[in-house]
Amino acid sequence: MTTTLSDSRTVGQPDRARPAVRPSDRPTPIIDVRAYSFWYGATQALFDLTFTIPRRAVTALIGPSGCGKSTFLRSVNRLNDLIPRTRHTGDILLEGVSLFSPGTDPVKLRELVGMVFQRPNPFPKTIFDNVAYGPRLHGLCPERQIPERVERALRQAALWDEVKDRLRAPGTSLSGGQQQRLCIARALANEPEVLLMDEPCSALDPGATQRIEELLVELKRSYAIVIVTHNMQQASRVADVTGFFYLGRLVEFGDTTQIFTRPADERTEAYITGRFG
């Protein structure tokens, strides 16, 4: 029988316990990208990407606008499936299983691979119901355990102390930075293995940005995080590994300190030093 990404999680299973050894504890990379190319209609956006994304680390993807970073990110949780006339070659594996295998359920995949977008997008629901939405939708636990799961996710997102007395207030009543942390809590409530973040601080003020960056350092203890950012300082502060995209190709990928201080490719150096982009 073909292994699928839904095998390890059963919708409706009550009070699921985590295995003694989480996938995050394994020595292998959590995501393995193999000669992956992608097209919007006749336009090729990604060219032959091959690299791996480590566990319990922040991976930053940098590069000029339109170079394919967000397209790749949306490939990892198959949001590009929603766009007509797209296609790909190559493969992306999560825990050794192809994201594109016939048995892969995209809804289940998005439970395992959370996504936080450029602008905060809380649902038109209460703070509590925003965070509870995923666990209820996927049947991840009995209703009686939802409050505990919501509190845990809000604590992980460093938001609990700020909202614990107004959980029934609309999520849209929060500040921009709080809304973005609410969206992070919403993703974490599903207990994903990977958290994708597409320019999560671009719409935030410096104070809120600092809070998000501090949060990333905490969250990488438990999750693999992939962040797309145009902010070179942010990438150098929070990322363990960095990949430089240019014109749909991965030019360079490696340790963040090495990428920023001793880049191997002159295009990487030119971008990092602000000569283009």
Could you walk me through the main structural features you see in this protein, from its secondary elements to its overall organization?
By secondary structure, the protein is α/β, with parallel strands linked by helices. It is 32% helix and 23% strand. The protein contains 10 helices and 10 strands. It has helices at residues 69-76, 106-112, 127-138, 146-156, 160-163, 176-188, 206-219, 232-238, 256-261, 266-272, and strands at residues 31-40, 43-53, 58-62, 86-94, 97-98, 113-116, 194-198, 224-228, 241-246, 249-255. It has a 6-stranded mixed sheet, with helices on both faces. Strand 9 (241-246) and strand 10 form a beta hairpin. Helix 3 packs parallel to helix 6 and helix 6 runs parallel beside helix 7 (206-219). The radius of gyration is 19 Å and the shape is globular. The relative contact order is 0.18. The model is unreliable at 7-24 (pLDDT under 50).
Shape: globular
Q: What's the mean pLDDT score? A: 90
Q: List the secondary-structure elements in sequence, H or E.
A: EEEHEEHEHHHHEHEHEEHH
Stretches with pLDDT under 50, minimum 5 residues: 7-24
State the end-to-end CA separation: 48 Å
Query: Tally of extended strands?
Result: 10
Radius of gyration: 19 Å
> How much beta, percentage-wise?
15-25%
Main-sheet strand order equals: 6-7-8-3-9-10
Structural class call reads alpha/beta
Proportion of residues in helical segments = 25-40%
Largest sheet, if any?
A: 6 strands, mixed
Number of helices: 10
